[in-house]
Write a structure and sequence with these properties.
155 residues, 6 helices
Length: 155
């Protein structure tokens, strides 16, 4: 079971890494100049994809190790909170501090999914975009530590 979770985490981290490669120029540009409407929409898509990748990892862990993913109207919030906690079967996946930071990305992803792109405002996205690479670096390190805690792969 842990091998399939390991494979899922590795796959999603590779895809998130690719996201940063593909959009490197846009991310760098957005730190130097205010993006236009099309660039803002593209950056919103990057933020959305980033958190989707993280949530895919969280769901794999919740279903594979915890036995089930949270349900109900607040399941996204509950899933993120659960990942910062140890369970009888695993150590925490992320630190509480990282969980707090990721809450902003989760909330943005929710807004993005339920809104029209012309409602996007750079002033409300800027901090998420500017911090994105550092947030990913920290989160990725915590994922790697979590993978180590799972021990050797099953034969």
């Amino acid at each position: 079971m842990t091998e399939s979770i390991t494979v899922q985490i590795q796959y999603e981290t590779e895809q998130i890494g690719r996201l940063f490669e593909v959009y490197a120029d846009l991310l760098a540009h957005s730190k130097q100049e205010t993006p236009n409407l099309v660039e803002i929409a593209a950056l919103a898509s990057v933020l959305h994809s980033f958190y989707n990748g993280l949530e895919n990892i969280f769901l794999a862990i919740a279903k594979g190790l915890d036995g089930a993913a949270p349900t109900g109207s607040g399941w996204h919030r509950d899933l993120l909170a659960r990942m910062a906690q140890a369970t009888p079967k695993r150590s925490p996946v992320i630190s509480p501090e990282t969980g707090e930071v990721l809450t902003g990305y989760m909330m943005f992803r929710h807004f993005y999914r339920h809104s029209y792109s012309f409602f996007l405002e750079w002033t409300k996205m800027r901090d998420l975009v500017t911090a994105l690479e550092d947030v990913w670096k920290q989160t990725r390190q915590e994922f790697l530590a979590f993978l180590e805690s799972l021990g050797p792969k099953e034969a």
